[in-house]
Sequence to fold (159 residues):
Amino acid sequence: MRPFNNVIFDKYMLNENPYKDLREHTGLSREQLAKRLGISPDSIRRYETTNKPPLWYYLLLRVLAGDLSIFGARWVNCSIGQHAKLFTPFDKNAGYYPMDVNEKTNWLAARAAARVADMRDKMRDIEESNAALMFRLLRYENLQSRKNSGKVVPIFNYK
Fold:
C-alpha cells in the first residue's frame, strides 16, 4: 500500500465516487470494512453511493489509508505503512511501531518532568534565600531605626 497524502486524497475527491475509491485505496472490500466496523456491507454501500457519509466514516477511511494529517499539522506527511509502522518525514527510513512511539514520547515526557522538578527545586532554593535576605534586611532596618531613635547604643562606633 502506498503512503496516503493529501494530493492523492484531493484526486479522489474529484472522482465520481470518492469514498469508494478511497476505500479501495485502503485495500479493503466493502465486506471486509463492514466486518471490521461491525456494520452491514449495505451501510458501506449506502455511504459510498450517497456521497454524504457520516464524518466518522470519512475520517476512518483517511486513517485506514495511512493519512494522519487529520490529527493536526504535526502529522502532515506522516503515514502508516505495512505492518502498522509509522513513517515520518523526519525519519523516512525507519518506521516505528505504536509502542516504540509510546516509549519514545514517555521517555521525553519523563525527561521533561525531571527538568521541571529540577527547576522547581531551584526556584524553591531561590525563594528561601530571598526570604532569608529579606529577614536580614528587615532586621537591619529595625536595628538602624532603634539606633537612630537612641533606644540602642552601639558598642563600637566605626567611622
About this structure: The longest helix spans residues 98-149. The longest strand covers residues 91-96. The two ends are 90 Å apart (CA to CA).
